[in-house]
Amino acid sequence: MKTRQVDIAIIGAGTAGLNASREAHRAGKSWVIIDPGPYGTTCARVGCMPSKLLIAAAERAHTIAGAAEFGIQVNDWKVDGPAVLKRVRSERDRFAGFVKETVESFDPENLIRARARFSGPNTLIVDAKDDTIEVKAKAIVIATGSSPWTPPQLEGVADDVLTSDEIFEMEDLPASMAVFGTGIIGVEIGQAFAQLGVAIEFFNPFEDIGRFSDPKVVAETHRSFDEQLTMHLKSDVSAVEKVDGGFRIEWTDRDGEAHTRTFEAILNATGRRANVSDLDLEKTGIPLNEHGLPISSPRTLQCGDAPIFIAGDVSGHRPLLHEASDEGRIAGANALRFPDVQAYIRKTTLEIAFTSPQMAIVGNRWADLDHDEVVSGEVSFANQGRSRVMGVNEGLVRLYATKQDCRLVGAEMFGPRMEHMAHLLAWAIQQNTTVPELIAMPVYHPVFEEGLRTGLRDLAKSLRIAGHCQPQDRGEGPGV
Ligand SMILES: Cc1cc2nc3c(=O)[nH]c(=O)nc-3n(C[C@H](O)[C@H](O)[C@H](O)COP(=O)(O)OP(=O)(O)OC[C@H]3O[C@@H](n4cnc5c(N)ncnc54)[C@H](O)[C@@H]3O)c2cc1C
Ligand SMILES: NC(=O)c1ccc[n+]([C@@H]2O[C@H](COP(=O)([O-])OP(=O)(O)OC[C@H]3O[C@@H](n4cnc5c(N)ncnc54)[C@H](O)[C@@H]3O)[C@@H](O)[C@H]2O)c1
Question: Is the CATH number 3.50.50.60 carried by domain 152-270?
Answer without folding.
Answer: yes
